[in-house]
Amino acid sequence: MTFEHEGSIRTAASPEAVWRLWSDPGTWSEWDPPVERVVLDGPFRVGTTGTMRLAGGIDAPFELVEVRAEERYLDRLTLGELVIDIDHRLRPIEGGCEIVVSTRIEGPGADDIGPLVTAEAPRALEALVALAEQAAPV
After folding, report:
1. Tens-place pLDDT, residues 14-52
2. CA dihedral over 89, 18, 99, 127, signed as positive or negative
3. Which of 21, 80, 95, 136 is placed for a possible disulfide with 17 were both Cys, Cβ 3.0 to 4.6 Å?
């Protein structure tokens, strides 16, 4: 089974301002409601692994599968037989950037867990934009 979801938002913040938040996993719990804590086992680059503590005390191991500074990162979480890919992309636009986050879940029950995993996605995008715009006013 496969579940897919995509959300986007435009911001006056620069791609650099958004990237500073994305590339610092210590900030993820500030803008992504289900994330309680993130421990990264090395630098923010392809192949680095870590553990994400999600709401409800769920520890999800993850790996950075794609990292292109100020452009894109993709993290892959593994929860039993479920594989959750979350692709974060930045597109520069006049006066700021567009943030696009795509989630793809594969495995048994993907259609059931997908709506739960992505329920807070709009709030996460709004919180990310608010922090990025505060950190780097235009």
Report:
1. 999 999 999 999 999 999 999 999 999 999 999 999 999
2. positive
3. 136
